[in-house]
Amino acid sequence: MAKQSTSLRAYLLTRIALAIPMLLILLTLVFFLMRVAPGDPISAALGGRLTQEELDRRRAEAGYDRPLAVQYVDYLGDVATLNFGETIVDNRPVTEVIVQNGAATLELTLTAMLIAVGVGVSIGLVAGRHRDTSVDFAGRMFGIVIYAAPVFFLGFLAQLVFGKWLGWFPTSGRASPIVTFELETKTNLFIVDSIISGNWSALADVLRHLVLPATVLGLVIGGVFIRLVRVNLIQTLKGDYIEAARARGIEERSVVYHHAFKNALVPVITVIGLQFALLLSGAVLTEQTFNWPGIGSELVRYLDNRDYIAVQGIITFTGIVVIFVSVFIDFVNAWVDPRVRY
Amino acid sequence: MSTRPFASRMLVLVAVLALVAAACDSGGETPTDEGSPGTSTGGTIIHGTTDTIVSLDPAGQYDFGSNQISQQVYNTLLEVPEGETTPQPALADCVTDDSMVYTCTLQDGLTFSDGSELTSEDVAFSFQRNIEIDDPAGACSLLASLAACGKWKDGVIETPDPQTVVFNLSAPDAVWPFILTTSAAFIVPSDVFPADELQADGEIVGSGRYTLAQYRAGEQVVLEANESFWGDPPLNDRVIVQYFDQSSALKLAIEQGDVDIAWRTLTPTDVSSLQGQEGLSVLTGPGGEIRYLVFNTSLEPGNELAVRKAAAMVLDRQAIVDNVYEGTVDPLWSMVPAGFAGHIDVFKDVYGETPDVQGAEQVLKDAGVSTPVPIEIWWTPTHYGDASADEYAEIQRSFEESGLFTVTLKSTEWDRYTEAAFTDQYPSYQLGWFPDYVDGDNYVASFYSSSSFLNDHFDSKEVDDLIATERASTDQAEREAAFERIQEIGAAEVPIIPVWQGTQLAIVRDGVEGVQATLDPTYIFRYWGITKAS
């Protein structure tokens, strides 16, 4: 037992150690790619209004003419001290962007992941249980179509049907304008804030705004889980211990849901980690489509304006989150399944 | 042990889904201010926009979105009231004898929204910090008649007493009253704003009709009526400005009633689809936004006057207006747009209202230019909206259909574009302009002076002299005569071809009043005159 714990600890430490160079490569790529691309925040904001001399003077004043190496060293130093600086285009502390807009993205992605797992696992389970039946066929088709559909297309479709035609759900924003103004924000997670403040009408409003974007994003990711759970369940149902359970006269329903299903879920944990990164990239498009004020839509805006500081800060933060989640998932995987060791 | 954790997780999942379902059950109506449960509704206007905010500090802004909010929170010494085109007294009344020394007398009893007194020291402080901070995104360049950015000079502003401000300009400048209405001239309290850096956006204080109640960057601005405002109070209690990334989302929001007003910017297709919809009105007003095509007169083929003239003759503006913008813009016949004092339809008079292929052919033939003339035109897809691609395809079509030009269209994103266009790398290129102030000077001096930011190498001593004359003169007739002459020279030399002039468009829901009146060439969206039926 002690040997197993040591092995798990060593595995975890190895994963954490590997994450550091991964992060450094990410930071370096972001830094240099932003600067080799043409343009700068001054041109983006004032090009077309000032003379070239005036633009050059303002660029120099803002420090964009300093040697890249100097800027790079400064940048790494700032990241090491968790100082992400202030955005150039609107003078916001990057940490404020991360906290305020990151919370919006977190709320969206976590809900989307819940929906993805809920939909994916339940449909995959039913499809695997009823292999090669019309139910299985329908489940597989649903998974393929949903996974193949671009998230913005599904988003527009959902807005059109459930927003415009049926009028069931709002199509933009995290909450109604007045709720956004009046809700006392402590965590910037509107669901949590409305619960903390006991504002149940605000909670209902926030949830209604969350339904379409979270469902669209969740369904896209859920397509992967449908196929994965189905295949794993079918494989698991072929196992000797399943045959043994059946031979002991245990009900088929119990065999499937109590014995096979749990084992079939193990690979899903790994995929959840991988899908989380995909979820963040999908969130960019979802946020744009539903005017969700998350970190993804802010990233696009800052990219458009060549705001080096903001883009660096947001990508660094996002990279850290993805790395953290993948290390965490690896840990959970190794903990759940003792066969996972290096 | 083996099943309980999983069952617990499933229970949590079911509970969350049930919560969502319960929320969905709250009804089919869309969440307007009336419909939001448990919220106050009286006197709140909700405005949706795709504009963005760079800074809410006057020293750090030279953009439309920031100015729009600042107009509500701050005041200037002079302002252009609704329906007017010339500066009128606001915080102060200003007089001058020689257009070089302006003496402004502040009204009695002015205060900022925090209750502190507004004095001449605050005025001097506001101008000085704007010039000294010299923010890269700021508009201190508009104050050049006072001092160059970053080069404040003692004595350029005098404050002999708490109510008097004297501006000592470096040269006669009749445009100075207009400058005093711009974002560079907002007055801020000297005991709140730092002298050497920008004030945090959420902590601004002004003397305007509204105070900033909340600022969520990129998401929402909430303005509440300033109870200590020195003039007539706003007709509403509160304005919420909702920001949208996509015009499609803004369109849905106005359709669903999430916002009361959609102003700036919907696509022409969106506007067309909203026209005639029940519960919505599409309002239009004059606008000073323009688009134009610049020739670098030092590069081929634009270095040949006949080529520039022929291009002006074959350009089909009406096709652009109809096919690309679905009638939401107007043809532009001069670099001074219609509605501005001194405007003349000079390009229509000189080159005709419809394409004149025969005339263009003759001009080229007389100049010995062989046809078709190869011409490279640059445009940018990342600054002037999605319609730019169609606009330049239409320009290409009208040029090539004449048989006199073969057009190569090229495009690149905005940052690279501005750098290349102004450093002699593009022979001809697309640009656009919003007015800084409602005066013809903002157009003629910006485009036709030999020191124009365009760097198109158009250099006319007569134009420079005329600009100096109109800037030094307080005689409006003399100034308008100068504008007209400059436009005539511009049409004769054609360094720039005007293409279209924007019409302001606002979509409002039924019951919202007062929007039509504010759609004037100043581009100031005056929230204070807007009401909504409860």
Q: Biggest sheet of chain B, in brief?
A: 9 strands, mixed
How widely separated are the two ends of chain B? 59 Å
Stated plainly, the CATH topology of the largest domain in chain A is called MetI-like fold
Mean pLDDT across every amino acid position of chain A = 86
Encode the helix/strand succession of chain A as letters. Answer: HHHHHHHHHHHHHHH
Structure notes:
Chain A has 342 residues and is mainly α. Chain A has two domains: 67 residues, no CATH class; 204 residues, Orthogonal Bundle (MetI-like fold), CATH 1.10.3720.10. In chain A, 78% of the residues lie in helices and 0% in strands. Chain A has 15 helices and no strands. In chain A, helix 10 packs across helix 13. The longest helix of chain A is centred in the middle third of the chain and has 38 residues. The model of chain A has no long low-confidence stretch (mean pLDDT 86). Chain B is of the alpha+beta class and 534 residues long. Chain B folds into three domains: 132 residues, Periplasmic binding protein-like II (D-Maltodextrin-Binding Protein, domain 2); 108 residues, Dipeptide-binding Protein, domain 1, CATH 3.90.76.10; 218 residues, Dipeptide-binding Protein, Domain 3 (Dipeptide-binding Protein, domain 3). Chain B has 16 helices and 19 strands. In chain B, strands 1, 8, 9, 10, 11, 12, 13, 16 and 17 form a nine-stranded mixed β-sheet that branches. Chain B has a four-stranded antiparallel β-sheet with strand order 4-5-7-6, covered by helices on one side. In chain B, strand 6 and strand 7 form a beta hairpin. The N and C termini of chain B lie far apart (59 Å). In chain B, 52% of the residues are buried. At the A-B interface, helix 2, helix 3, helix 5, helix 7 and helix 8 of A face helix 1, strand 8, helix 5, helix 12 and strand 16 of B.
